[in-house]
């Protein structure tokens, strides 16, 4: 008897214990065959408004292996309901269902999913194949969900298709198959995991008569040859001929139960086969091999903790994305736009910050205090930039007093000159600032770092790299030699762009047009009328700043020429450009410098010293102050920009949510199919979340690329048109990672609600969806 039992040791695929141990209730037990399925007093009620619909009323039935049982009855009689209850697709309202000895009415949702996956095969009236998968992929689906390795999946799917005469249709999609063929694929899928139970709900309902007969013959074969328990719901009396047993149902009750073939014969049929294991397919190995492999995953499944492989979910999600590529691209674009905006804005924030911080480094060491003739009128940090408030002139005397203040090490005048540089007929506007006096050059951090050339060279010119490039790039136009005042300049101006270094040692004419205080000191622009150009030799190139440098004595000469009048109007006539000794400007008027720098003895001296200088009526700015306020300002700017990008991302996320919600509605049937072949709720949720994550990741990558591209473009444009030396936009690795991470996170958050809605769908309802 044991060898006739379903689920004995020979049946590796069956995870459920087979010790049913129930004696026959309707006489069939006398045949010595134990029932695979026992229904005891099963009831099912539905509520429709206030109405109580009884779809199954006290149904008791035992179903045997090797038997094809037809359930017949009028529409609405409760046939499908009974089938769904047997297959664990729906819950009973009362009574008990024992399947292979286990009470499925008491199973938890996951156990029930495992039961459906491993013990039951479903065949539906409208085939319910996934239209975008090929026939073979459809057959592989339950195996994919059960974690059967790919080669075995394929081998078994092909064996089943061959068995049902569909070997040459394996790569066709359902739309390319006839109804009969599609239903045979559905039967093959139902048998993929070699289940002992095959439940078919009106499998011939959508078929013509001939195809209907073919399917019924096939189902009978599956019952008799494989020894499976096959239950077919139909209302077509024509097909009763294939049944071993006919159960008639009306109003949820069994009306009659008739054996058309003696149960013994069915039992004998079952006994001659090792149930569910032997496939009468052409491949002798395929049958036994596949169940064994399936069996490996099955014990886990029985325990209800079997996970649908993540790989399977990933594959399903990827195929879903591929199928609706247009929509996925659209949704991903939303994410991409949000991420791009965020990356661009944060990148610009970071670029500005690093540019300013780097620029600050060129302002001098932390011990330097920038002094302005204008007293600060409020605000902090950049207060010195405002050229307002009462003015205290920085005269040579005042400079000496500043240098003599307690805590001060030295003081020197500073100015920013707006100059026109000319070389080989090419003219370039440049901002030129002065170096400290040579006696202070050893003070750390005071001299800019040279990219090329070397210190020192009195009377020399250190060019900003961008200015050098501009001088060189104009060379093509300069060939005609308009105005080439410096006769010594020849060579490097040719058609091709030479490197900035090639300018070292070359002479450049510098014509000062006016001056202001230094960058931080601020101050009004004082124009200089008709200054005679000075020829200076280039001694070095600096990077990372837009300023070029001249020596202190040279700057002093210019300051005294322009500033001799005491600021305000244009300086004295151009004759004074040359070598007046410091402090003795033209017409005997005292010189006023536009700005100064006081170097403190130590960092600790900076604050008290700045205070003392302030008391003298000057404005002061320290690098320390600026660093602090800039860091604070940029934190705010960056956060603000990030928030704007974040809002874009939230909008994109909402878009994803809407699209996924629509997708859930659209794919209810697919969800139902997956549930029918054993996917758990959380597998469905995961499927949608993975799909969202895939779209989010792709959108994130695209967004990082687009944002990075836009940033690169912004850099190129500011370099081209604004001669910027600093990158406006930077994208550190963390920003790229953050962008992709946000893309994934936004879609996961947005996908959460639709995914859980999909997971909550009732399998039967889902399958009923159009
Ligand atoms: N989800 C549901 N909510 C409310 N009533 C339902 C639900 N499902 C089924 N019913 C009702 O239960 C009864 C039995 O339905 P069932 O589908 O099992 O009958 P059937 O015999 O399979 O009919 P048909 O041959 O038309 O498919 C019917 O009255 C039906 O309207």
From TrEMBL:
This is ABC transporter domain-containing protein. Residues 37-276 form the ABC transporter domain. Keywords: ATP-binding, Cell inner membrane, Cell membrane, Membrane, Nucleotide-binding, Transmembrane, Transmembrane helix, Transport. One of its GO terms (cellular component) is plasma membrane. Residues 1-24, 258-295, 475-497 are annotated as: Disordered. It is found in: Cell inner membrane. The chain crosses the membrane at residues 328-352, 639-665, 686-713, 733-753. Residues 475-496 have a biased composition (Gly residues). Residues 1-14 have a biased composition (Basic and acidic residues). Pfam families: ABC_tran, FtsX, MacB_PCD. CDD domains: ABC_MJ0796_LolCDE_FtsE.
């Amino acid at each position: 008897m044991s060898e006739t039992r379903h689920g004995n040791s020979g049946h590796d695929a069956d995870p459920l214990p087979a010790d049913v141990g129930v004696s026959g209730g309707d006489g069939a037990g006398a045949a010595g065959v134990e029932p695979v399925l026992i229904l005891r007093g099963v009831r099912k009620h539905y509520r429709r408004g206030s109405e109580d619909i009884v779809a199954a009323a006290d149904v008791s039935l035992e179903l045997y292996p090797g038997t094809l049982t037809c359930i017949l009855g009028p529409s609405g009689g409760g046939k499908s309901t009974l089938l769904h209850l047997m297959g664990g697709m729906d819950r009973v309202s009362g009574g008990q269902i024992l399947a292979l000895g286990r009470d499925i009415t008491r199973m938890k949702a996951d156990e029930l999913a495992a039961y459906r996956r491993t013990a039951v095969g479903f065949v539906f009236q409208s085939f319910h194949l996934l239209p975008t998968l090929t026939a073979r992929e459809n057959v592989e689906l339950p195996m994919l969900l059960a974690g059967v390795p790919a080669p075995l999946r394929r081998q078994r799917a092909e064996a089943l298709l061959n068995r049902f005469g569909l070997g040459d249709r394996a790569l066709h999609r359902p739309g390319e198959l006839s109804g009969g063929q599609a239903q045979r694929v559905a039967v093959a899928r139902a048998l993929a995991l070699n289940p002992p139970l095959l439940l078919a709900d009106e499998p011939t309902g959508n078929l013509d008569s001939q195809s209907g007969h073919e399917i019924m013959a096939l189902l009978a074969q599956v019952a008799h040859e494989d020894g499976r328990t096959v239950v077919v719901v139909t209302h077509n009396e024509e097909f009763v001929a294939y049944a071993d047993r006919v159960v008639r149902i009306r109003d949820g009750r069994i009306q009659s139960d008739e054996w058309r073939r003696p149960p013994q014969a069915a039992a004998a049929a079952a006994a001659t086969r090792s149930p569910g294991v032997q496939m009468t397919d052409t491949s002798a190995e395929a049958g036994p091999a596949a169940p064994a492999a399936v069996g490996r995953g099955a014990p886990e499944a029985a325990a209800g903790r079997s996970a649908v492989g993540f790989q399977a979910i990933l594959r399903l999600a990827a195929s879903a994305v591929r199928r609706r590529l247009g929509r996925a691209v659209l949704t991903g674009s939303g994410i991409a736009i949000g991420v791009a905006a965020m990356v661009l804005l944060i990148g610009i924030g970071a670029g500005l910050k690093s540019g300013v911080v780097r620029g600050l480094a060129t302002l001098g060491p932390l011990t330097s205090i920038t002094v302005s003739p204008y007293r600060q009128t409020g605000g902090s940090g950049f207060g010195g930039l405002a050229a307002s408030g009462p003015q205290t002139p920085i005269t040579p005397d005042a400079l000496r007093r500043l240098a003599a203040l307690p805590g001060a090490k030295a003081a020197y005048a500073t100015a920013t000159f707006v100059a026109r540089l000319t070389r080989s007929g090419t003219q370039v506007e440049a901002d030129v600032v002065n170096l400290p006096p040579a006696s202070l050059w050893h003070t750390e951090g005071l001299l800019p770092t040279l990219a090329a050339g070397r210190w020192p060279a009195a009377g020399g010119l250190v060019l900003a790299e961008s200015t050098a490039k501009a001088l060189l790039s104009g060379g093509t136009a300069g060939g005609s030699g308009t105005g080439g005042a410096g006769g010594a300049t020849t060579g490097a101006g040719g058609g091709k762009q030479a490197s900035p270094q090639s300018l070292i040692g070359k002479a450049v004419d510098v014509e000062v047009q006016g001056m202001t205080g230094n960058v931080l000191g601020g101050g009004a622009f004082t124009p200089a009328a008709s200054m005679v150009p000075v020829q200076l030799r280039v001694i070095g190139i600096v990077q990372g700043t837009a300023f070029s440098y001249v020596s202190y004595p040279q700057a002093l000469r210019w300051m005294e020429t322009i500033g001799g009048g005491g600021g305000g109007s244009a300086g004295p006539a151009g004759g004074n450009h040359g070598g007046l000794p410091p402090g003795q400007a033209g017409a005997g008027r005292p010189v006023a410098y536009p700005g100064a720098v006081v170097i403190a003895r130590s960092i600790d001296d900076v604050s008290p010293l700045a205070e003392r200088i302030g008391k003298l009526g000057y404005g002061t700015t320290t690098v320390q102050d600026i660093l602090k306020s800039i860091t604070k300002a940029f934190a705010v700017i960056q956060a603000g920009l990030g928030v704007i990008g974040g809002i874009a991302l939230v909008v994109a996320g909402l878009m994803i949510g809407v699209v996924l919600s629509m997708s859930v509605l659209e794919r209810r049937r697919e969800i139902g199919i997956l549930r029918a072949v054993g996917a758990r709720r959380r597998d469905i949720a995961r499927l949608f979340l993975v799909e969202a994550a895939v779209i989010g990741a792709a959108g994130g990558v695209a967004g990082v690329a687009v944002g990075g591209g836009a940033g690169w473009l912004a850099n190129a444009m500011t370099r081209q048109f604004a001669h910027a030396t600093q990158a406006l936009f930077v994208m550190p690795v963390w920003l790229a990672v953050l962008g992709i991470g946000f893309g994934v996170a936004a879609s996961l958050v947005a996908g959460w609600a639709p995914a859980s809605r999909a997971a909550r769908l009732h399998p039967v309802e889902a399958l009923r969806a159009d």
